[in-house]
């Protein structure tokens, strides 16, 4: 009785219940019933006024039904099951369940009831069950876009609805509830979710909270669907997108977690007299990175330092960064965190403009992190907890420990810093022009970015035909290998495809039809994916078999090598292809299982049925909205029959023999369908009604539909039917008992069949996930084939040659070319002038002089690009190339500033130069162009010389240094200027030039007042920059050129070296 009063909508009844609770003492030890009654009373309008917080923990609720003595007499199943089935109305105001509200899974149910009721009285929100759900999640996620699923719509209410309407430009309307008040309302159909998620998350940077209906996928639909519980299903952020349709398949979307060493929590103090005291101690603070592309299941881990974090961020290009939740307050307030390294990291993230989130290494936000916790485990925990927070029930499996991640090592990869990635234009180029596609199917998705891929190394070399292969290409160019074994293994595979054009062509054609299998596997791991996805897995496995079969055919047609392979010997040609075949894991049994379970001819129908089932709802759960206007269509019996056939085909995509339950349901439904067709045909003939059809109407249920008035008579006189409605075109609907009975059986069988199909689909997905490791292994081999055949195709198209790599530090590039410059010249029917670069211990530093626009910077870049391509496993644009493994590539090329970080052009140049001098090793390659500009002549020259001297004395690595400071040549031992060109070969031979230094230059060819750039590199020093000639080419006015020449003639006697 008390429970009935406590849940009443009348305030008087609730007050009586509260008084009874205050006075009543249950006999014995029956206290277990009190939490239930308190929950009922305090969840009402009156009870809420006496308690500001309404909170019930799972542990507070009784675990079983209790008798008067407090003893357990049975489970509470009846009470739990009753809630979802109760009709929702203004008189039944139940609090939402736990999953609808809990943001992190700790509190079962908590929201401020007093504030909610105050909002109700103020007219901000109505007092309904759905309003409570929306209110609680609105207050829980105040800075997010909240979308609540109601039937076939995602809806936004109250103040958030006004914001959503303004942001998306959709219509803002209002909804009426029981008290007839109007409340702001906006929304869109569920099938448009991906469209608006793209706008909100990718284009505008919002975080979107999806509150969805929590239906049991294996439950047969019934009346309980009118009161469906809801839960926060996903929190969509830029780094947690899984299978949205608008995702660019050839783009990785990394979520990056970063942790700092605990030593970074205090401000480091420089030690007086320390040799490294001038260096920033924060640069040495260890950082651990864990990053993942959730959509493909790629997980990586790496250890780095604070000095290299910007370079790693540029290489990884994460869409979102997750930090330790202890840094949240510093990020929000902008105040110092007590750690200089942490403050520097937060400042960098602000400069880069990346989306930042926070997660705790421990599950409970209030639990302190143990001081001895391993940083590697901590960063993995932060990554995992953020994914769990964002993806919830759709969280796919991820590696449990660091050993299961793809571990990246700075020693195993060529390190290319951020400045070099930009300067060499590996992936992006800051130049005007539209974006172009470098992948097989879709653009790079950089519509909101000024970055272009036109003219980049990626755009020139890319010949991949699959999305996953293109992703591998981008990763490889950004971080080539330093392992001689891995590099030569790929070069051998590329060479095998270069030499076998028919095989290369057939493999590339086969690869084009292969889907992105790992995206499907990730959907399955998240308990998502439909019948077409399962069938695509079988198709992919069969495509692998045909791919391997084609390679095997090529191998079988070639004679066997008589040479016995030695241990450790590089495998080439036919033997390399055999190794590739042997590396594939067998998966034919899985494909056979899927093919036996699924009817291929019905899979497209099943997909169309799912897409077409998203109809517009005419009535929502608690409020009402005007029904959508639909165009009137002419009656077509053939069209209705065709529609029925499509619906039936959609039911049969799982073969009947998959399970005994499906066999029985197929048999029953086939029998019922035949009875339906017979009944319809018999009635049409008996009552002379050709337009008569037995249909299911959304309002009247199973009815006899007759289109023409001339066909009513016999049917109505039969006494077997009675009129229930009319159609808009003048037809009538009749109720017929026999059809209602048969239709009910059909409906019940179809619903049971849908449940069994869902169960079968779940089982098939589980079978695929069991083989996920083998599938991923084969997918990686397919990507390797795509990358290698792409490299081979580029080598044939562009006349590239196989490089020779070794463990030394020498470089010998004969007639090398810059890929991007060559491609640009070729498009305008011009030829590229190749140049050679030879470096060894005696000539590891090249000082390059010459005229402006004479090709100095191109030479610098082409040397680095050739080294990158070689270590990526590609052939290179040169007649011959021998390259010692390069561990790092550094460049200081170009002129720009960084106003956001208050760095002028000169200061930015000094910062980048300092980083090079600190991080370069004897195996590095340094490119420097015009160091020391932006200040006075003497100061700039001093800085340039000091840079060269430091490299010679402390590093000794391969260096290309372009300059217009011709005095540097004399300072390094070259002869004094006599004319505009000086041959330095004698000085280099007799030891007057500093050890390791060689001089090269470009020049201008002049004849009869005309000139042209030779671009051909030759030994020596060029003391004339020919700057006025470059100005003439730029179109300067004649008077300007005359003034400039006269001024130069006056200055040259004072500064003959210029």
Automatic annotation (TrEMBL):
Top-level taxon of origin: Eukaryota
InterPro entries: DNA_mismatch_repair_MutS-lik_N, DNA_mismatch_repair_MutS/MSH, DNA_mismatch_repair_MutS_C, DNA_mismatch_repair_MutS_core, DNA_mismatch_repair_MutS_N, DNA_mismatch_repair_MutS_sf, DNA_mmatch_repair_MutS_con_dom, MutS
Source species of the chain: Vanrija pseudolonga
Name by which UniProt lists this protein: MutS 1
Gene Ontology terms: cellular component: mitochondrion; nucleus
Residue spans of biased composition, Acidic residues class: 611-622
UniProt keyword terms in alphabetical order: ATP-binding, DNA damage, DNA repair, DNA-binding, Nucleotide-binding
PROSITE patterns per the UniProt record, alphabetical: DNA_MISMATCH_REPAIR_2
GO MF entries: ATP binding; ATP-dependent DNA damage sensor activity; mismatched DNA binding
Residue ranges of the region described as Disordered: 604-640
Residues annotated as domain DNA mismatch repair proteins mutS family: 924-940
Similarity remark: Belongs to the DNA mismatch repair MutS family.
GO biological process: mismatch repair; mitochondrial DNA repair
């Amino acid at each position: 009785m008390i429970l009935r009063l406590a849940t009443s909508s009348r305030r008087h009844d609730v007050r009586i219940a509260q008084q009874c609770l205050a006075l009543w003492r249950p006999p014995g030890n029956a206290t277990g019933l009190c939490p239930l009654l308190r929950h009922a009373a305090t969840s009402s309008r009156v009870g809420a006024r006496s308690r500001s917080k309404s909170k019930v923990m799972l542990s507070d609720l009784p675990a079983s039904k209790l008798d008067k003595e407090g003893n357990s007499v049975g489970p509470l199943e009846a009470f739990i099951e009753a809630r979802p089935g109760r009709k929702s109305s203004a008189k039944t105001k139940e609090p939402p369940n736990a999953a609808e509200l809990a943001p992190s899974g700790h509190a079962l149910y908590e929201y401020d009831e007093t504030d909610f009721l105050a909002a109700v009285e103020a007219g901000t929100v109505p007092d309904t069950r759905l309003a409570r759900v929306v209110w609680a999640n609105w207050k829980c996620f105040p800075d997010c876009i909240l979308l609540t699923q109601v039937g076939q719509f995602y809806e936004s209410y109250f103040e958030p609805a006004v914001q959503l309407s303004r942001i998306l430009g959709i219509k803002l309307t209002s909804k009426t509830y029981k008290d007839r008040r109007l409340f702001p309302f906006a929304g869109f159909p569920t099938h448009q979710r991906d469209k608006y998620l793209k706008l909100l998350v990718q284009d505008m940077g919002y975080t979107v909270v999806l509150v969805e209906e929590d239906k049991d996928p294996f439950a047969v639909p019934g009346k309980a669907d009118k009161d469906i519980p809801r839960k926060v299903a996903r929190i969509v952020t830029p780094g947690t997108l899984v299978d949205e349709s608008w995702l660019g398949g050839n783009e990785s979307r990394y979520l990056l977690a970063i942790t700092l060493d605990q030593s970074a929590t205090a401000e480091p103090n420089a030690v007086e007299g320390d040799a490294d005291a001038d260096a920033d101690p924060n640069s040495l603070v260890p950082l651990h990175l864990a990053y993942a592309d959730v959509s493909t299941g790629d997980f990586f881990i790496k250890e780095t330092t604070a000095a290299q974090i910007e370079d790693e961020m540029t290489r990884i290009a994460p869409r979102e960064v997750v930090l330790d939740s202890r840094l949240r307050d510093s990020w929000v307030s902008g105040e110092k965190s007590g750690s200089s390294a942490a403050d520097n990291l937060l400042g960098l993230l602000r400069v880069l403009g990346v989306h930042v989130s926070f997660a705790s290494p421990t599950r409970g936000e209030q639990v302190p992190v143990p001081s001895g916790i391993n940083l590697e485990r901590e960063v993995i925990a932060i990554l995992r907890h953020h994914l769990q927070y964002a993806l919830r029930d759709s969280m796919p499996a991820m590696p449990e420990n660091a050993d299961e991640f793809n571990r990246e090592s700075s020693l195993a990869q060529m390190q290319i810093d951020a400045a070099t990635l930009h300067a060499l234009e590996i992936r992006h180029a800051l130049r005007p022009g539209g974006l172009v596609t470098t992948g097989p199917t879709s653009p790079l998705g950089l519509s909101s970015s000024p970055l272009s891929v036109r003219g980049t190394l990626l755009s020139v070399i890319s010949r991949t035909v699959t999305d996953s292969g293109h992703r591998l290409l981008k990763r490889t160019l950004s971080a080539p290998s330093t392992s001689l074994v891995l590099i030569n293994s790929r070069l051998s595979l590329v060479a095998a495809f270069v030499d076998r054009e028919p095989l290369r062509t057939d493999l590339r054609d086969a690869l084009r039809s292969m889907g992105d299998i790992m995206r499907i596997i990730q959907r399955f791991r998240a308990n998502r994916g439909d019948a077409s996805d399962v069938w695509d897995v079988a198709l992919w496995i069969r495509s692998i078999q045909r791919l391997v079969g084609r390679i095997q055919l090529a191998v079988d047609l070639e004679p066997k090598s008589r040479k016995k392979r030695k241990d450790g010997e590089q495998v080439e040609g036919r033997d390399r292809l055999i190794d590739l075949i042997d590396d594939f894991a067998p998966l034919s049994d899985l494909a056979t299982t899927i093919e036996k379970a699924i009817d291929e001819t019905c899979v497209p129908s099943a997909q169309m049925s799912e897409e077409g089932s998203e109809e517009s709802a005419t009535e929502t759960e608690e409020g009402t909205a005007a029904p959508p206007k639909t165009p009137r269509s002419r009656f077509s019996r053939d069209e209705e029959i065709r529609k029925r056939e499509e619906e039936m085909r959609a039911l049969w995509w799982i073969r009947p023999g998959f399970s005994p339950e499906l066999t029985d349901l197929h048999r029953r439904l086939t029998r019922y369908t035949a009875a339906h067709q017979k009944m319809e045909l018999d009635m049409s003939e008996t009552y002379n009604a050709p337009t008569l059809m037995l249909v299911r109407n959304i309002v009247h249920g199973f009815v006899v539909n007759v289109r023409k008035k001339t066909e009513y008579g016999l049917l109505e006189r039969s006494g077997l039917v009675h009129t229930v409605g009319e159609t808009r075109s003048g037809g009538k609907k009749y109720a017929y008992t026999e059809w209602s009975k048969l239709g009910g059986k059909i409906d019940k069988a179809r619903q049971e069949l849908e449940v069994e199909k869902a169960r079968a689909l779940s089982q098939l997905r589980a079978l695929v996930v069991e083989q996920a490791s083998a599938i991923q292994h084969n997918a990686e081999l397919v990507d390797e084939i795509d990358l290698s055949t792409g490299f081979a195709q580029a080598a044939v198209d562009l006349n590239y040659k196989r490089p020779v790599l070794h463990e030394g530090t020498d470089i010998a590039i004969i007639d090398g070319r810059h890929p991007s410059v060559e491609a640009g010249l070729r498009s305008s029917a011009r030829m590229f002038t190749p140049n050679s670069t030879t470096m060894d211990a005696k000539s590891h530093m090249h000082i390059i002089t010459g005229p402006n626009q004479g090709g100095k910077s191109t030479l610098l870049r082409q040397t680095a690009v050739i080294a990158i391509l070689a270590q990526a496993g590609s052939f290179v644009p040169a007649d011959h190339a021998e390259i010692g493994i390069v561990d790092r590539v550094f460049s200081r090329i170009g002129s720009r500033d960084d106003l956001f970080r208050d760095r002028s052009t000169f200061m930015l140049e000094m910062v980048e130069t300092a980083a090079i001098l600190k991080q370069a090793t004897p195996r590095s390659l340094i490119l420097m162009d015009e160091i020391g500009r932006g200040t006075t002549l003497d100061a700039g020259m001093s800085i340039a010389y000091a840079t060269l001297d430091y490299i010679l004395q402390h590093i000794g690595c391969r260096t290309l240094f372009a300059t217009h400071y011709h005095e540097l040549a004399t300072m390094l031992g070259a002869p004094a200027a006599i004319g505009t060109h000086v041959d330095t070969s004698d000085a280099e031979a007799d030891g007057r030039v500093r050890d390791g230094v060689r001089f090269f230059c470009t020049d201008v060819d002049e004849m009869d007042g005309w000139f042209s750039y030779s671009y051909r590199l030759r030994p020596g020093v060029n003391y004339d920059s020919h700057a006025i000639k470059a100005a003439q080419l730029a179109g300067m006015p004649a008077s300007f050129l005359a003034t400039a020449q006269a001024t130069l003639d006056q200055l040259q006697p004072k500064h003959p070296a210029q």
